[in-house]
Amino acid sequence: MRVIKYIFFTLLIFLLVDAKISVVNAFYGDTEKANSQELSANSLDISIRDIPGNIINASLFSEENVQPNQSVSKSVLLVKEGSLDFKYKLQAQTDNYAFCNVLKLKVKEDGTSVFEGPINNLSYDSSNDQMDSRHIEFSLVFDEQNAKYYEQTCVFSISFFAWQVDSDGTWGFTDNEQITNNTIKSGLWITDPQFDMIYPNGGEHFKPGDLINITWNNDSGNPFIDNINDIQVVISLNLGPGYSAGHEIAFFAPNTGSFEWEVPSNSPELINDNLKIVIGLTGPSILTQIESDNFFSIDTDYENPPVVINEVMWMGSKDSSADEWIELKNNTDTNIDLTGWVIKNAATSSGNITLLGQIEANGYYLISNYNSNASAISNSINSDLVDSSLSLNNDGNELILKNKTGNTIDKTPTGEWVAGTNSDTKNSMERNNDPKEGANTANWHTCIDDACNNDTYWDTNDGDNYGTPKSENHSKNDKSVQKNKEKEKSKPVDKPKEDIKLEDNNTIMPEQIPEVEEVIPNLEASVSLNIKNTSENIIEENKTGTEETKEPENNDTKNSKQDETEDLVNPI
Asked: Fold match between 196-298 and 307-475?
């Protein structure tokens, strides 16, 4: 029984517990079914690509030797790689503010200009637009010529910052891409400073020996050039057509704005109507050039020509009337190239003889119709130019010597020959030792000196030919030589002073007067006499020859001056 009761109570408890649990779970239920559901994540991603579509992993700009006013353009594609539309902002960062700031940047977005200004100021915000992919063009312009920007480098980067369209960029999805190490290097160029030539600037006329104060404006208007202390100038003379090189005047002279130049007398190539001064200004990274606006000229100094027609054997020799020759003389200490020079009216039918080679300093140049074997000239003398067209009219020719540029250097008188003899003897026409102007008849004479017809110059000693080919002229009838000798004779002769003591009667004995050499008329010589006064009366003869007698002085004064010496000058 006891066991049966135990089982009954156990079953009862179990039934009660089971009834409670059923009450807890008695809730209403519902079932929902979703068809074709997908789970996905949105993203914002951009890339910078070149026009072919390749991602740019290196720099966009890498330019060297950029010159003023040069423009460089590059284009990129800003590509939407993610699912979200975006807005973006362009900015630049630089490392050389001064040079980068003069590089002008222009930006176009899909053909529309969105920015223009220095790289340093680049800032473009597209926040007002919803963006997908875009075409962006960058153009850089360097428009400075200032020497300050020679050989400068600008390194810069361009950033593309993008954010989702419903954000202000401070939250949400963003992306930032950069193009770094963009490089622009400037080169060297000929600047265009405002240097100006002042003088000579065209139309001026000068002669050898003249001093020309070459002047230019050395204020360029560019402080970066003017402040360079070691800027220097190279000055030369543009000789015009026919000359491949100019004539150097000054090399690396200071940029003072002026330079004094003496026109040389030993450079006949400068006798020219087409001259210009050329000045090159050089310095650190500076190279520019200015020149005269128009031509000026250096004219022949006919009183002191560098090369002269020195002797003319216009009548030929005793052997042949065609044995003619012309001699030139170099009056300078410099060799002169005669190539391209001409002697007008020296050839057949008043034609020209064209010269070749050079004439040595203080030397001679001989042009002959015959060579030394065929000519009566000594075989020891060789012509510098043998020209069979040489033909001189016995009635006279005006010979004109012209340099390479066609400017007259020297000439003989017009009309008949002013000197020379064509008779039993053949005497050349010689230039005076002091040549002066060749067109003046007074500056020529006939060669008659005995030394002019010996075997030094001719095949036959003591023959009938008189002349000094390729040698100095030495005729005794050279008026310029005679004048020089007269000048030497006319110099006053000074005698040394001698002490002469006056006798008691205040007279000078004749034997006490110094001898005076013969004096040329109209020439005043002088003798100085030191006369020691021993008497009370002192006679003084002044320069005009008048005499003055001084009254006796009192004893005190007389005694104090008794031993004084006075100089007395006697005009002769």
From this structure: yes
